[in-house]
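Example 9 (inverse folding). The structure is encoded as follows.
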């Protein structure tokens, strides 16, 4: 399933534009799923019913089940995205430092 797999990368060979593209790809995927989940959520009938058994929530509406699973997947993607954005920020910062070093050495 393409939406679930995390696009692997290796910082050793990854350039800044590639890293940015990677983050953008993850972001787009999260956004796409977010939109889907919200669409499903907003179009559910008002008489949604859930029942709890031994602490687990069971959905009588199958769409609720989808929303629940998508929500968990979405949270995972958001944390992946956050990590990628942090990585990108660090990479950009070290790139700026490298540039400053370069121009200082001239």
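The amino acid assigned to each position is listed next.
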């Amino acid at each position: 399933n393409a939406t679930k797999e995390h696009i692997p990368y290796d910082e050793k060979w990854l350039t800044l534009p590639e890293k940015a593209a990677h983050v953008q790809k993850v972001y787009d995927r999260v956004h796409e799923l977010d939109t889907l989940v919200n669409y499903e959520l907003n179009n559910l009938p008002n008489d949604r019913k859930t029942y709890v058994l031994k602490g687990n929530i069971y959905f009588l509406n199958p769409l609720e089940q989808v929303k629940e699973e998508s929500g968990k997947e979405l949270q995972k993607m958001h944390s992946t995205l956050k990590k990628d954005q942090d990585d990108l920020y660090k990479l950009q910062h070290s790139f700026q430092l490298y540039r400053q070093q370069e121009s200082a050495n001239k």
